[in-house]
Amino acid sequence: LDPQLWHACAGGMVQMPTINSKVYYFPQGHAEHACGHVNFRNCPKVPPLIPCKVVSIKYMADLESDEVYAKLKLVPLSGCGNDDAFDYENDSVVAGGISNGSDNQDKVLSFAKTLTQSDANNGGGFSVPRYCAETIFPRLDYAADPPLQNILAKDVHGETWKFRHIYRGTPRRHLLTTGWSTFVNHKKLLAGDSIVFLRAENGDLCVGIRRAKKGIGGGHEDPSGWNPAGEN
Amino acid sequence: LDPQLWHACAGGMVQMPTINSKVYYFPQGHAEHACGHVNFRNCPKVPPLIPCKVVSIKYMADLESDEVYAKLKLVPLSGCGNDDAFDYENDSVVAGGISNGSDNQDKVLSFAKTLTQSDANNGGGFSVPRYCAETIFPRLDYAADPPLQNILAKDVHGETWKFRHIYRGTPRRHLLTTGWSTFVNHKKLLAGDSIVFLRAENGDLCVGIRRAKKGIGGGHEDPSGWNPAGEN
DNA sequence: TTGTCGGCCGATCGCCGACAA
DNA sequence: TTGTCGGCGATCGGCCGACAA
């Protein structure tokens, strides 16, 4: 999975350390994200935080939901629990290296839009914000009437999706029509979920999705749905 | 899962031992049905057959395919490998007890039909053989024009399916129309698969399915599709 | 600029009797 | 008796511009 697409799907709030950088591993924080309850009582020697070095990073995407996640391999920097051997004041910890996939962002453009009811209704298509159509999508021949093209986009699994991109209506607007509802149904998208379009360095168009936060009070989103992905 | 419905779905060729009856357990035969290869070389002491007593039987149905299977709990009758302690000549082994669910068959009627192309095509409904409609389905009021009724049938999971049963056409024939294609699509039925209707002792109508044999030369079926289930 | 709506057209679903095996 | 077919009417998917936020 392309790290650029991965970061575009994960959103600008997600930062990843670089290989060989130093980080803290928080066992309790990790345990809180486990599926089942993790009981530390039987192993009371677990320290609250463990200085580690990042050995490897695998950018992954769930096969069913397309949601992105990462596997990090961490190696403790000092002997177990011997915190004194580690320099807490060293800024290189945590700040040792951060990558949000935007190192060459001048070349990698991405855009995220939260789906409206009209986008998610199987009654029709997808309203493409002008910014997205003009900066991410392939150039449209505006001499045609109406201007239209077929666009191909690869998802996080490398699967290609085909959409009909048309510029029509009064006033004119960009729309995805044929192919869109197939995508919505197959990915089980609902109003509130987000879609990410990304133009890779090689010119390929990619598409990712970001599920709406479930649970209570999950994340405040800009209600305008204007989320240029990958920006701070 | 009702043993009567289970046997109707399994078909007349399937016989089950009764609880406490004596049977032979064939480890090699069992291994041949395992998903992966079972290697007996590391345990060469496994005898070719082991006399056992049937301790429990659970009638099951696969949650996805509706295919029926059973879990048997067997207890060896003698010390491991000491075959001499067992009376091979005793007819009670294997013949100790057989149940095919037809103990009170005079009350439990069932019928199986192999689906034709016309039945499985989502273009329409299901041609109900007269015998099935008249002996398994609820009585139809032939005074109406055309005679029709809604029938409810429980599948192996206890889920209820609704079908419109109508007697129409020239010449007259029994059909299932509304509700049938929903059932076919949900169960992913194909031409060649079989459907089983069963009238339980309490009068409830039940429906089961029997997938077509895959693989090479799998089972010769009566091409007429006439398979009164549960009969010898 | 773009979200929602009603109109409308074409495709598909599915009910029907005709006909024949 | 029942499997297959063509017809056809109802429903639905989905493309469209109008309109307003």
TrEMBL record, chains A, B:
Protein localization: Nucleus
Domain of life: Eukaryota
Annotated TF-B3 domain residues: 111-213
Role noted for this protein: Auxin response factors (ARFs) are transcriptional factors that bind specifically to the DNA sequence 5'-TGTCTC-3' found in the auxin-responsive promoter elements (AuxREs). Could act as transcriptional activator or repressor. Formation of heterodimers with Aux/IAA proteins may alter their ability to modulate early auxin response genes expression.
Subunit structure as annotated in this protein's UniProt entry: Homodimers and heterodimers.
Family membership: Belongs to the ARF family.
Name used for this protein in its record: Auxin response factor
Native organism: Cicer arietinum
Record gene name: ARF10
